[in-house]
Structure formats: C-alpha cells, structure tokens
Q: What sequence folds into this?
C-alpha cells in the first residue's frame, strides 16, 4: 500500500535559519496523522510545502507514491490536498458560497459564473457540516468558528482526499471543537486522509492514529497512538522532562492589597463588572467567544470608554484615555493578536522591545542601553540562542510562539504593577507555554496584580488563583482554581443550570 | 450579497436625484424664460462631459476593488489625444486608424503599470505615478507645445455608426459600464478581482491566479483611460498635452463616491459611473450660480468627504 503523502529527506532554510532538516515520514492513506512539536519545530513549514506555497531546498514530496514538484497552492488543490490554515483565511467581503468556491468557481462558457449551482452545492456542504449559515451571508458577519468551518467546506468542495489542518481549534470553544472532530470522523469514514497539527495533545490523542514529533526542524519519532502517552510525546517535543508545576500560592496572594478594583463598570460590551485583584494574585477570566472578555481588558486600559461605574488602581480612581496613559500608571495589556496588535514588523526586535518602556517612561531612546536591554530580555525569555543574536533581526524570522514571547517581554520590560494578558498562550507550544506561565507567576510574586483572559480551561486551572466566568458581558460567577472543575466553569460560561 | 450591493447603488442614485432636484429648484428661472439647468441640451452636455470621467472611472473602480490604485488615467487621456491628433492631423491617417493607434498607446501604458506592479513588485501608487509622468512627458514631447485641431478634419454632420456625434461618448460609457458590471459580478474574473482585494493571502492559497488578474486590471484601466481620451479629443475637437490635468483624482473620487473602498474588495462599476454623473452635474450647475465660480473646487471637495462619511456611518449602523 502506498502512502497518501510521503516526505522524503526534506530540507528547507529561510535566510540562515534551517526550518527543516532531513525530514522523512509517510502518512498512510485513510489515517489521521498528527504532527506535533514546539513553535519553530517546523510544522507550519512542512504544511506549507504540502500546500505548495513553499518549495523544499532538497528532498521530495511524494503523493500517492509519485514524486511531485508543486508549482503553487493551485497545483496542490488540484492534486486533492486541502489545507485549513491556522489564520482565518477568508474573504470578508464575499458571500459564503463565493468563499467556498473562491479560485475554483463553477463556470460555464467564457468564465460565466454558475451562481445558482454554487449556491446549491454550498448549501449541501453547509448541511453536511451542520452549519446553519445561509450560502448568501457575507462572511464579515459570521462568527469566527463558522469561518474556520468554512475552510473545511472549501476543502470538501474540491473533493480533497487529503485534508491538512493547522491548529484549527485555537479560536473555537470546546463545543465547536467537538463539532469539528465529529466532522473529521465522518470524513475519515469517507476515506479522507487527515493531517492534524496541534499543540493540544488531548485533541491529538482523541482523533489521531499516528503521531509524528518534530523538534528543531528534525523528525524525532513517528509512533502509533496506542504506544504513546501525552508525557512521552511532550518529552519528545521538548527533549527534556517538564517538572509538574506547583499549584498557585493562593494564601500568599490573598495577603496582598487590592491593586485593581472595578465597581459596576459598564461599557458598550460589558455591564456591571465588579471585581478586585490583589497584589501578588493571578486571576483568570474565562468566557466563550463574544462574552466580553477582551472588551473588559480594553476598557481597563482606556481603549473603550466606560459609560458607568468606577475603576480604581491601587486605591486611586482612574479613567485612562489611552493605553499610553495606562502604561504610565503601570497598567499594561498584552494583546491577543500579535500580528495586528502586538508587533511592528518593520522594526528590529531591539526597537520592538524598547518601544513600550521608552513611551511609558517618557525617556529618549538611548542606543547602547536599548541594545543591552534587548539582549538581556531575549536571553531571559530564551528567544533565539546563545549563538544567534537576534537583537537586530525582524520579528518575522521568529516562530509564532517566540513572537508571542516578544510581545509579552516588551510589556514586562516596563515593570508593570498591573498586568493584563489576553490569551497569552494562544497557538503556543507546551514548552513556551510553560515558560510564559512561569514568568506570569514570577511577575505576580514580584508584587504585581495579573488578570489573564484565556479560553484554554486546563491552562487557567493550573495558572491562576481564582477564575471569573463571563457570559454575555456580565460576570456569571467566580470559582477558586483549587477546587474548580472544568465542567463547573463551562456550565457557568454556557449559562446552563448548575 | 446581491441585496447589500443593490442598496449601495440605490443610495448613489438617490444622491444624484437629490442633487438634480436641488439645482432644478435653485436655478429655476424667474419669469417665463426657459429653465437654464433642466433642458434637453444641458442634459446632453452634462452626459457628454461626465462620460469622459465616467469611462475612466470604470477602470478606477476595478483597480480600487482589486486593492490597488491608478494615478495614470489623466496622463493617458492626454497621451491618447495627442497620438490621435498627431496621426490624424499631421500624418493624415484615417480617423479609425488614428484612434486605434491612440488606444494602443493607452494599452501600452496600462501594460507598463502591470509589468512594474506584477513583475517588479512596485507598489501600485509608485508604479502608476511613474507611468503618469512618462505618459504626460511623452505627450509633451510629441506636441512640442502645439495642439492638434482634430475637429477641422471631421466631416460635417458626421454620425459614427449612425449615432449623432454628441451621443457617442455617453452611449459608449453606458455600454462599457454594462459590460464591465457583468464581467465584475457574473464572471469568474470579476470574482477573482473582488477576492484579491478582500484578502490577497487567502486568494493566493485559494489558487486564484493573482498575478494574471492583477495585471489584467491595470491593462483594462489603461484601455478605458484611452477610450476616454479618444472620446474627449473628439468631443473637444483638439489633442493637446495639457489635457485632462488632475483627472486621475476626479476619477478616483467618482469611484469612491460610487462605493469603492480604498481598502479593496468593495465597490461597483455602476456606482463609479453614477459618481462621475454626480460630479458632472456639479461641474455643470455651479458655474451657473452667480459668484460660485471660485467655490466650485471647494464644493466638489466637500461633496467627496460628505458622501463618504455618510456611507461609513450607514455601514456602521448596518453592522
């Protein structure tokens, strides 16, 4: 039996950085095959090679046993390979049906669009995916989860025989993810081969038969699910065993003075939020997409105007008009979308790292000090390595996880008293996640108050002292992390009767 | 999707109607004299001059929907007029041959833009800024300061294809608008233009032939500017190098007022033509108001801002 997809001694470098080195493994027809690894391990590059958007420097890609040189994404699609991207690649300005068929529209003579036929086919696909959306709806107006499933619909519309998914559940709630897994199960029953890239090992173990682990651009191992455990996979990914984290030091936290104090705070997206976070305390905020989590953080730093209620920082009433004012009072927000809100891709890492601290302190940039500070931050956050100095590199040479670390590092360089983090480990691998958690606890131990928004419930349960649950713009409840269960929190978030 | 877009063009039509109604009321004659604004001859005059902008605005709308910008139309219009005039008047070519050569010159300009943008990967603003200079410069070099009197060579009472001369360019505009409206909404190529403007990365991964489509957009814009140049030369009766100065911005304004978003992905060909008519009415009516002559550029500027702000407010409310 020939493999559906085989990577054969693949090498790929970007500039001087080797992304993939001599990677070989096969994905059998009809299998669900997971590719796991830390950020920067080379997973995304491998998928890009499969999707035809990146060409390997050496080695070959074999599809159904035959070597192929893909000319581009169009070529990969026509060979039955569909890719569901990590970033939501949709056309916000087009209808659902136009999105599904973009690039490969059904046409009559002279390229005349068969809109009726495409709409019917789209309706059938949406029904198969149990999506209640109309094929005429403009994608702009769709919830994020639907846009993700739209990509699956796209791949199905082209009768793809191999479906590769890159972190498809990062923006999905667990109910939506379950929905996706049911669909993937149905596709496998139809004989579709699935290649699944994820950081979430529970998902990998749930849906995949075989698991390939990459580390630093090399393949470490390919094993059957039955012969692996999450612990052995994590070890293969990081090359070392991670010590189990100690549970938060809740009693120390409670001794602190309240640094954040919200009283019935109300804006366009949140209502009547009252909460306090003490010095040395880490508090989590959980809620489904649209529950107002991000809006709450944005209100605190002055991106949204409160219409009622009070905000007190360290006992003093504040009404920040901009994140700049907030940062000058020691209140910083590490935003969720690192591409859009976190980094300047036209700046070197040095300038990226120095900007918030310089703006917050109002000092002029001092070149030498800036470079030394940047180098120090990069070392502390383990970005780059002892041999490679990245202070003058641009952010786009870094993997997603390392970019996220830079975003966090640049804000922490201002030594904030109040740290707000929005999905600090979204799309980040276990190793980096572990480090980021460690740093958040360290900042709290130094006397800061931390408020962490995350949709990763297991993460919150291990990281924070208390979890506040939001639903439809209001606080739906509070649970202590020590005693909370995932079910309990989900019930609050979803509004189900306790 | 269809409903939304219809709404957008209806609002442009509504603005046009309100505008016409306002000037019809404001310029109403005092005594029994005929209406200076509402009469057949004036309507034809508005259509005739609007069509110059309208034809080029079709191209501008397509470029803007693809996420680009084209600064060359004004210069291409001048170059076309000069080429036509020089061949027709100096070289004694037939009108058809001269016009075809002129259109070919406009196409060549579009092709240069396309090559610079797709091949050399220059930003569209820079590439078309350069082509604008080259086309305008070429026009000056050809004329050496003269102008070509085309009208003298035209047969009296000439009716191209049996259409009265004054009607040719409005009819050309309507025909081109319909053709490109269909191409943009009913044909795969048009869908690809919207896709590239909406999300270029997604378009790449979706297998859209980005480079081909992008190149075609600038070539078409060049072609339409050239057709507009031929129309203007025949309407005005002369080809000269300083023709259509600054038209590129009027043309972009028409497309934007007609609903095109400079962020790409949104807009319509019919809207752009309606936008050109809105400005055509303004340019015709304002000079008839005593003392308004010095205000007309200012009013045109205000109208652009007011219409686009209104559109954004409407969209925000809808969202």
A:
């Amino acid at each position: 039996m020939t493999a559906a997809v085989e990577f054969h001694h693949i090498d790929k470098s970007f500039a001087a950085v080797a992304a993939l080195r001599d990677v070989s493994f096969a994905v059998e027809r009809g299998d669900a095959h997971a590719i796991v690894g830390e950020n920067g391990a080379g997973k995304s590059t491998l998928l890009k090679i499969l999707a035809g958007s990146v060409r390997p420097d050496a080695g070959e890609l074999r599809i159904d046993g035959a070597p192929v040189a893909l000319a581009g994404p169009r070529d990969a699609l026509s060979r039955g390979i569909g890719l569901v991207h990590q970033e939501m690649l949709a056309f916000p300005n087009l209808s659902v049906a136009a999105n599904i068929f973009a690039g490969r529209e059904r046409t009559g003579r002279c390229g005349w669009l068969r809109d009726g036929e495409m709409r019917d086919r789209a309706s059938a696909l949406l029904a198969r995916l149990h999506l209640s959306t109309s094929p005429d709806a403009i994608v702009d107006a769709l919830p994020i989860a639907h846009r993700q499933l739209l990509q699956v619909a796209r791949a199905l519309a082209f009768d793809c025989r191999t479906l590769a998914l890159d972190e498809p559940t990062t923006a999905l709630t667990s109910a939506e993810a379950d929905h996706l897994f049911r669909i993937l199960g149905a596709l496998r029953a139809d004989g579709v081969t699935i290649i699944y890239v994820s950081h979430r090992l529970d998902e990998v173990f749930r849906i995949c038969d075989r698991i390939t682990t990459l580390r630093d651009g090399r393949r470490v191992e390919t094993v059957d699910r039955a012969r692996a455990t999450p612990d052995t996979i994590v070890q293969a990914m990081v090359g070392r065993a991670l010590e189990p984290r100690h549970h938060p030091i809740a009693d120390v936290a409670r001794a602190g003075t309240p640094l954040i104090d919200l009283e019935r705070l109300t804006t366009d997206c949140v209502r009547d939020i009252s909460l306090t976070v003490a010095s040395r305390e880490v508090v989590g905020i959980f809620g489904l997409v649209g529950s107002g989590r991000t809006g709450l953080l944005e209100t605190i730093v002055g991106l949204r105007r409160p219409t009622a209620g009070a905000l007190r920082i360290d006992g003093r009433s504040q009404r920040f008009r901009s994140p700049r004012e907030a940062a000058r009072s020691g209140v910083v927000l590490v935003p969720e979308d690192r591409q859009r809100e976190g980094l300047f891709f036209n700046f070197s890492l040095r300038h990226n790292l120095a900007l918030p601290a310089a703006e917050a302190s109002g000092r002029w940039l001092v070149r030498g000090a800036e470079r030394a500070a940047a180098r120090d931050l990069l070392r502390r956050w383990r970005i780059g390595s002892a041999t490679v100095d990245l202070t003058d590199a641009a952010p786009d040479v870094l993997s997603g996880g390392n970019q996220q670390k830079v975003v966090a590092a640049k804000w922490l360089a201002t030594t904030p008293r109040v740290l707000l983090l929005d999905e600090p480990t979204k799309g980040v691998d276990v190793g980096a996640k572990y480090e980021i958690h460690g740093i958040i606890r360290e900042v709290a131990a130094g006397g800061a108050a931390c408020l962490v928004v995350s949709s990763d419930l297991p993460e919150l349960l291990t990281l924070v002292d208390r979890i506040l649950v939001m639903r439809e713009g209001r606080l739906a409840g509070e649970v202590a992390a020590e005693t909370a269960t995932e079910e309990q929190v989900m019930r609050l978030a979803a509004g189900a009767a306790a | 999707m269809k409903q939304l877009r219809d709404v957008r063009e209806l609002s442009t039509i509504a603005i046009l109607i309100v505008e016409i109604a306002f000037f019809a009321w404001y310029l109403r004659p005092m005594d029994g004299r005929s209406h200076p604004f509402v009469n057949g001859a004036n309507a034809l005059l508005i259509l005739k001059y609007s069509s110059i902008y309208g034809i080029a605005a079709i191209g501008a709308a397509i470029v803007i929907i693809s996420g680009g910008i084209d600064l060359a139309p004004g210069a291409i219009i001048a170059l076309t007029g000069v080429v036509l005039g020089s061949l027709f008047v100096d070289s004694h070519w037939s009108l058809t041959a001269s016009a075809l050569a002129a259109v070919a010159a406009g196409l060549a300009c579009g092709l240069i833009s396309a090559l610079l943008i797709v091949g050399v990967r220059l930003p569209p603003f820079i590439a078309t800024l350069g082509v604008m200079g080259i086309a305008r410069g070429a026009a000056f070099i050809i004329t050496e300061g003269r102008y070509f009197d085309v009208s003298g060579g035209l047969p009296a009472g000439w009716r191209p294809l049996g259409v009265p001369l004054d009607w040719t360019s409005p009819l050309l505009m309507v025909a081109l608008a319909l053709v490109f409206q269909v191409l943009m909404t009913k044909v795969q190529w048009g869908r690809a233009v919207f896709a590239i403007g909406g999300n270029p990365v997604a378009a790449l991964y979706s297998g859209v032939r980005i480079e081909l489509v992008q190149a075609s957009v600038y070539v078409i814009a060049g072609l339409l500017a050239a057709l507009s140049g031929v129309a203007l030369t025949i309407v005005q009766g002369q080809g000269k190098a300083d023709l259509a100065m600054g038209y590129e911005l009027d043309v972009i304004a028409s497309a934007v007022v007609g609903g095109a978003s400079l962020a790409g992905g949104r807009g319509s060909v019919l809207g752009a033509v309606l936008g050109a008519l809105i400005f055509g009415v303004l340019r015709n009516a304002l000079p008839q108001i005593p003392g308004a002559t010095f205000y007309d550029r200012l009013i045109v500027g205000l109208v652009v801002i007011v219409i686009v702000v209104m559109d954004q407010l409407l969209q925000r409310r809808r969202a």
About this structure: Strands of chain B lie at 148-149, 238-239. The mean pLDDT of chain B is 90.
